[in-house]
Design a protein that fits this description.
Layout lengths: L2 H22 L11 H12 L16 H30 L4 H33 L8 H29 L9
Helix pairs in contact: 3-4
């Protein structure tokens, strides 16, 4: 068997195999098959593996103002890196464009730094205005819960004492 024959042989086997698979299935979805096609379809579904599996997000989505600041910062930083690369290449080539590109790269670096700081400040301001989600194991939360419980008990005891004073002692088993 020559090399050409070896390369053609699997192709013929694959074609025969696919036509054999098609013939066992029902020709139409509305027509029920003898059961072998259904078993095969079930096996295909079991062996089917999706390209990706959606998982819940580990972290919550960024707030809108923070996200817009972050996108703006990423775009400006990308442009700055591009300008720096062009300035470097122009300098290496000895082009007249090197001096303006170096100056604009320095200015862009300052603007990119400002944008990165803007993301940080926007995030801090948003957290301060809208509050930070506390962790379930927070010790501060447990202390607040204990204080609240103590206040409720004190108020309930005070109301009970007030009720006794208002009733004037009626309902007691012994009168002095």
């Amino acid at each position: 068997m020559g090399t050409a024959e070896r390369h053609e042989a699997p192709a013929r086997d694959v074609a025969a195999h696919t036509t054999a698979e098609r013939s066992t299935e029902a020709p139409d979805r509305d027509i029920p098959s003898d059961g072998r096609g259904q078993e095969k379809a079930r096996q295909e579904r079991l062996s089917y593996r999706p390209l990706w599996i959606e998982e819940p997000a580990r972290r919550r989505r960024l707030p809108d103002p923070v996200r817009t600041a972050a996108v703006r910062a990423v775009l400006i930083i990308a442009v700055t890196l591009l300008q720096a690369m062009v300035a470097f290449l122009c300098t290496m080539a000895g082009s007249w464009l090197a001096a303006p590109m170096v100056i604009s790269s320095v200015v862009s670096t300052i603007v990119a730094t400002w944008c990165a700081l803007d993301v940080w400040v926007t995030r801090q301001v948003w957290n301060q205005r809208n509050g930070v989600v506390s962790a379930p194991s927070s010790t501060a939360r447990a202390l607040r819960r204990e204080r609240r419980r103590a206040r409720r008990q004190a108020r309930a005891a005070e109301r009970a004492q007030e009720r006794i004073r208002r009733s004037g002692g009626t309902g007691r088993l012994s009168h002095p």
